[in-house]
Fold this protein.
Amino acid sequence: MAASSSGSSTLKRTLCTFIRYRSVRCVRQCNASIRTVCTSGSTSQLQPKIQSKGVSSQLRGVVGLEIHAQIHATSKLFACSRVAFCSPPNSSVAFLDASLPGTLPVLNRRCVEAAVITGLALNCTINRKSLFDRKHYFYADMPAGYQITQQRLPIAVNGSLIYSYFGGRKRNQVLSRCVRIKQIQLEQDSGKSLHDDQRSQTLIDLNRAGVGLMELVMEADMSCGDEAAAAVRELQLILQTLGTCQGNMSEGQLRVDANVSVHCPGEPLGVRTEVKNINSARYVARAIDYEIQRQKKVLENGGIIVNETRAFDSKSGTTIPMRDKEGLQDYRFMPEPNLPPLFVYEDEASVPAGVNPTQVVMIDRLKAELPELPGVRRARMVDQYKILPEHSFTLVNEDGLTEYFERVVRNTKAEPRKVIGWVMKELLGNLNQQSLKLAQSPVSPEALADLLNVLESGHISSSAAKVVFQEMWKAPEKAVEQLVKELDLGLVSDREKLLKICQKVVDTHPEQLNVPTTKSNLLTIGGLDLESHTKLKWKNTLQADPTLM
Ligand SMILES: Nc1ncnc2c1ncn2[C@@H]1O[C@H](COP(=O)(O)OP(=O)(O)OP(=O)(O)O)[C@@H](O)[C@H]1O
Ligand SMILES: [Mg+2]
Ligand SMILES: [Mg+2]
């Protein structure tokens, strides 16, 4: 029987209340208290030998990330229950998600496509054939007792991710790095356990059970928290651009496990600890840097590193042991008997006879639909518009900002370098001040382009243009010309008019008349702070009519 939807009323009755598991916490607490030193094979010999204090300065951090990205799809990986996170507990659970006997997994094509698109964007080789395996855990929020994953032959392998971060002594240099992606595997998410300490019970919500995940495993190519956080941010941006994961870390859509060890450069890698489920890029950096320092101290004091799973406590900024890993954790991997190998095809020509081409995943079609990726877009911004690299980062990081900028550029005579100044300062300044998203900006790209055109024509000064921008923000329905008129901000170039203004200024400030009438004094008549090009016009006026001197 194939897994059916969450529509069954019997199932709903059974699951719409929380399922109680009183024993779960006891099991977990037991596990946490049994911590042994890693003694398995090679890793036990890889403790860096630190005999004296101070030698730890030679030790370098080594970091490898495993990132779980929830696939942005309407239904789960192997069942047609909805992916719905804010709905009432256990309201989106198919028979399969609750592991009812007799249910079978049916693979969701959208999830496969998401993994292939992600693999392509990360320069991976897409395996034309991949396999599913069972990985066994005893967790109450995983009622089957195993997770379906891709341990032996994952869908994508051997990729890379290029990311940049501010480094150097003063942390003001943009440094570019590359981390290798070992593999991307499709797997199921688990449900959620909620611990009710007062009543000493654990409540289970299976809405998340069976949601499609991509686990991205990176090689241990990084060396500090800043690098890892930057890699996570870049990956988040790529996934959001692709639409394969929404990437909201605080909602658990992107969860990071950071593997950390220390070693002396040139020597084999040290024993790693794994800091699990970090849910913000900032915490990734803090957890890793703490863990590197902790390991250095342990070794310096003659201790050894235990291969264990740890958790990051954001309040204290420290990592704390959760459970021992190696030795205790035996996942008892086995091939998933209910799922055939997964095949993806290069193009229509490679689809075997008898297979419906509309029912398969074709790589060339997905490749053709790949959007412009953040790295490519940044490079294009710098190249095409001659803007600063740091501005290209801001443009790409903010959803829709590149499109906004390019629409302004298309509609104005102003140079892109001038446009970027207005976008960075005036537009983003106002949005940040009022905590608005770009889509909520009262000033459209076309309206900003109009303003810049009026500024370019010399009809208003740049300080007047800033005043007009603020007025446009308050009254977006008004056209730029109308606002300039209403506020009387147009530059005066009529000589008669200028003379009248001067006369008025002189008349209304008799005390200033005692000041010797030098050229420079005339240029700041009445203490008016005139803009340099206005001053220039005054200069010309004075030169044309020396009687004014
Ligand atoms: N010595 C090391 N120091 C730091 N990171 C390491 C080291 N050795 C391996 N890693 C990293 O640890 C991660 C191992 O992930 P992988 O999914 O292969 O195994 P796992 O952590 O044992 O399994 P699980 O998926 O159950 O957590 C990779 O990101 C790898 O780069
Ligand atoms: Mg892993
Ligand atoms: Mg791991």
About this structure: Confidence is low (pLDDT under 50) at residues 1-45, 525-533.
